[in-house]
Amino acid sequence: MAFLATFWLFTPKKHSLHVSDKIFTFASMRPIFLIGFMGSGKSTLGRALSRATGMQFIDLDLYIECRFHASVRDIFASQGEDAFRDIERRMLKEVCDFEDVIVACGGGTPCFFDNIDIMNRSGITVMLDASRPRLLQRLKLGRRKRPLIAAMTDEQLEQYISEALEIRMPYYSKASVTFMADRLDSADQINESVACISEILRLPATQ
Ligand code: S3P
Predict the structure, then answer these.
(1) Of all protein residues, whose CA lies closest to atom 8 belonging to ligand 1?
(2) For the segment 67-120, what is each residue's pLDDT rounded down to a tens digit?
(3) Å from CA of 147 to ligand 1 middle
(4) Cα 8 to middle of ligand 1, angstroms
(5) For a substitution probing ligand 1, which of 68, 148, 160, 165 has the most ligand atoms within 8 Å of its CB?
(6) How far apart are CA 69 and CA 106, in angstroms?
(7) Pair 85, 58: CB distance under 8 Å
(8) Ligand 1 — pocket residues by CB below 6 A?
């Protein structure tokens, strides 16, 4: 099995990137998968990357909602989490076949079945890594549409983030690229992040 050397790239703008040399086999038409915990900025950064590159943006949760005519919250409530994970896997496999797309996965997508391996085989995976305080801050505001945390108090949410991250990090860390995603709070910060990721992935620019 080929040895995959890894190295760290530090940018001057407080972002750091961890890049596996798998990146250099990346053909520009293959999907880019943004993975990471709820609130790590996958949709925010995915939309901005799509605008900057002209690549199509797919939010996997929205894709599921359109295909199944039901919100993620309703699927969880009516069919349970196991059924949602089956649907999520099937829809992930569909988008793996698309070209020139940026896919924002759900926070749990890489952590079930062999989904992370499927993504790594089909395209390039980018893990958005945000600090626990930043995740807590974002998720306190964005709890309602997320069934796993909707009913939690702030204290329960803080504990859940710590415990779930422990379980999920081994899956997230199989991503080809790790990007520190604490700084996504303003248009400038988002633009900096887009520029940084576009450069390392050698993405096309629309202008
Ligand atoms: C989930 C994250 C959600 C959504 C579902 C389950 C998770 O997506 O897929 O509520 O298991 O972490 P976001 O990460 O976009 O919130």
Answers:
(1) 106
(2) 999 999 999 999 999 999 999 999 999 999 999 999 999 999 999 999 999 999
(3) 8
(4) 28
(5) 148
(6) 17
(7) no
(8) 38, 42, 61, 72, 106-108, 146-148
Burial of residue 155, with CB atoms counted within 10 A of its CB: 0-12 exposed, 13-18 middle, 19 or more buried:
exposed
What the block records as the tokens of 39 is 């609130």
> Which atom of ligand 1 approaches the CA of 64 most closely?
9
Centroid of ligand 1 to alpha carbon of 64 (angstroms): 12
Which atom belonging to ligand 1 lies closest to the Cα atom of 111? 11
Q: How many angstroms separate the CA atoms of 136 and 158, rounded?
A: 6
Q: Which of 106, 111, 107, 92 is nearest to 171 (CA)?
A: 111
Q: pLDDT, tens digit, for every residue of 125-157?
A: 999 999 999 999 999 999 999 999 999 999 999
pTM (two decimals): 0.89
pLDDT at residue 11 greater than cutoff 80: no
Rounded Cα gap, residues 90 and 88, in angstroms: 6
Q: Mean pLDDT over all residues of the chain?
A: 89
Distance 5 CA to ligand 1 centre (A): 31
Secondary structure element (H or E) that encloses residue 57, with its range: strand 56-59
C-alpha–C-alpha distance, residues 108 and 112, integer Å: 7
Whether residue 6 is predicted with pLDDT greater than 60 in this model: the reply is no
Burial 100-124 (b: 16+ CB within 10 A, else e): ebbbbbbbbbbbbeebbebbbebbb
